[in-house]
Amino acid sequence: xxxxxxxxxxxxxxxxxxxxxxxxxxxxxxxxxxxxxxxxxxxxxxxxxxxxxxxxxxxxxxxxxxxxxxxxxxxxxxxxxxxxxxxxxxxxxxxxxxxxxxxxxxxxxxxxxxxxxxxxxxxxxxxxxxxxxxxxxxxxxxxxxxxxxxxxxxxxxxxxxxxxxxxxxxxxxxxxxxxxxxxxxxxxxxxxxxxxxxxxxxxxxxxxxxxxxxxxxxxxxxxxxxxxxxxxxxxxxxxxxxxxxxxxxxxxxxxxxxxxxxxxxxxxxxxxxxxxxxxxxxxxxxxxxxxxxxxxxxxxxxxxxxxxxxxxxxxxxxxxxxxxxxxxxxxxxxxxxxxxxxxxxxxxxxxxxxxxxxxxxxxxxxxxxxxxxxxxxxxxxxxxxxxxxxxxxxxxxxxxxxxxxxxxxxxxxxxxxxxxxxxxxxxxxxxxx
Length: 433
Known about the structure:
It is elongated and about 90 Å long. Helices cover 50% and strands 17% of the residues. The chain starts with 15 loop residues before the first strand and ends with a helix. A hairpin with a 5-residue loop joins strand 11 and strand 12. The chain has 433 residues and is an alpha+beta fold. This is AGRG3 protein.
């Protein structure tokens, strides 16, 4: 909740209403009144929804009527321009209209309206005439933000612990058992991915601990390091997907000398170039998260608000492409595993709990839990942020369990590992050729 006059219209900057010509053409030569009603609902006991999630801009509702008939289904929409001060990053504007039939006493709906947000104005395009307003949906409040920071901090500690367990386990089985080259490369990939997760969680803990009191230069360095660790995590997730594609789709294999070394150069080197370019244009610094009443929730050393385009391109866009590719690979791997299980080739996956754990581990290995970040906007942000934080904290745990099930103990009865599936698939393909 914020003050009632948070975004009071600045002097000389009034809102605008544009009515399409189609409304008047349908009236032919009739003379009808055009009425625009502006109400301050704080002074009236009306337009109040029982479980309203957002704050009405300036407590103002605008009603538009042309004649006495109801007008809806307009091809050329009515446009209302609401002017306001610059909104905090945690606030999402939403164009809504009053629907008397919603619930027992009516409520706000957004169907038929399109929201076009801007820095100091928001344009609402709606296909009908009624009472409209602009809702300010707040993603976080102070108590929710503190709870999320506590969950994230605890989750980072758990993730770091299991990352260490996973790397130790991979080193142990590489030294203890004699695996074929394909499996050794897979283990090396897993170690690098988990190592990037460890560094990312460590960077977040350092960021949340020192960002509020850090020197501007130190904050820029810490923001760049955090961004680098995040990009490394995304890149190694992409490399895991590429490796699975080569193993399950290009089943006859391709020999690449010093393959793992080249993957390391790409996985740890490519983010250096991106961070170097972003740092060169001054993208890093103090990033402040605020509520609607400008209460500071958190200080972070990250990409500054002036360079959010860098965030959208290097983080959202980059991960979006990786996610689409990895989900396609996940579908191929799942289809091949199911077909092999149908032929009775893979005995180790017949227990339902093992199937669920292996699928969950593979899902986490390909970075699917990061995709929840795309849903952390609007009025449902708080639940999604909790889910995003918790699942990404459990990512290292699921990967650890997944590796233990697949690679240990190595007995004659354990035939459900990826190496066995790949070998069987190669033999099947070779026999068909």
